[in-house]
Design goal:
CATH class of the largest domain: Alpha Beta
Number of domains: 2
Radius of gyration: 19 Å
Structural class: alpha/beta
CATH superfamily of the largest domain: Alpha/Beta hydrolase fold, catalytic domain
Helix content: 25-40%
CATH topology of the largest domain: Rossmann fold
Oligomer: single chain
Shape: globular
Length: 293
């Protein structure tokens, strides 16, 4: 089904459109001003976030991409933001299907590169792995703060995530703003409890929405496209995640010549500081310049 135009806005260095792809997916397209676009980049947010990303990081990346001549497409995954779907029912394979649908709608204009943050990186990798990896040879993947896929996550990852959440909440506990929000009832204590104590692994008989019916990491070994992996040096999950994907690369995943692993010193999971974001944008643009077919 063709895209249905919803709204349009003009900016000095770009033109933005909010459109629906098919009958349920909403995207914002950043069209570069002037010359013919250099290609397309699909930006995929994390598991629960909208297409803006945390602290608008995907908006910043899309603006930088458009200013450099790329068409940047920010996707609301099913059940998130303005896309249709039930949040609680959407699994990893649904997200991969959504990313493939949007990418396929742009494929006539050339390869669509995939940029994903956190779980969005897993969606991007799953898309090139499952959807005919040979035809995706020119589709580069930019995976930011990506974690191993669920079957490969050892107990250490879960402990590390819980401990990271405990430290974050402990730091916030000393802030007067936190206490003011608590007294107002603006803090979801059940969510805090879940983040500190709950396991990502489902209980017996339950479905794991973050897992796939495919063995994605095995199928990734057949994909030989360019890849950029970036983590923050201040993200405790970064070092083991980098080591895991480096092992997959050594086993055959991605291009031999055009796969890059990078750690931004001091950066946290979502690259909140301005300097970290500027470095991330520079890395992405340089990589895409080199990855063009």
């Amino acid at each position: 089904m063709p895209e249905q135009l919803s709204s349009i806005a003009a900016f000095p260095a770009e033109r933005r459109e909010v459109v629906r792809v098919g009958d349920r997916l909403c995207v914002t397209i950043h069209h570069p001003a002037g010359a013919q676009p250099r290609g397309s980049v699909l930006l995929i947010p994390g598991w629960s976030g909208p297409r803006s990303g945390p602290a608008d990081i995907l908006v910043l990346l899309a603006r930088k991409l458009a200013a450099a001549g790329w068409t940047a497409i920010r996707l609301d995954l099913p059940g998130r933001g303005d896309s249709d779907g039930n949040f609680a029912d959407v699994d990893l394979d649904d997200m991969i299907d959504a990313a493939h649908t949007v990418a396929a709608s742009r494929q006539a204009a050339g390869p669509v590169h995939l940029l994903g943050l956190c779980s969005g990186g897993n969606v991007a990798l799953g898309t090139v792995a499952i959807r005919n990896p040979q035809s995706a040879i020119h589709n580069a993947v930019l995976a930011l703060s990506a974690l191993p896929f669920q079957p490969a996550r050892a107990k250490g990852f879960e402990y590390r995530r819980r401990w990271k959440n405990v430290k974050q909440y402990a730091a916030k506990a000393f802030s007067p703003t936190t206490w003011a929000r608590l007294l107002k009832g603006d803090i979801n204590l059940e969510r805090v409890k879940k983040n500190v104590t709950a396991s990502e692994k489902p209980a017996s008989g339950e479905r794991n929405l973050k897992d796939s019916v495919h063995d994605i990491e095995r199928e990734l070994l057949d994909w030989k496209g360019p890849a950029l992996f970036v983590w923050g040096g201040g993200d405790e999950e970064g070092p083991p995640s980098r080591a895991h994907f480096e092992k997959l690369h050594a086993a055959g995943m991605g291009s031999r010549q055009h796969t890059v692993f990078h750690t931004i010193p001091g950066a946290n999971h979502n690259f909140y500081a301005r300097a970290w974001r500027e470095e991330l944008c520079g890395l992405a643009l340089r990589f895409l310049d080199q990855a063009r077919p």
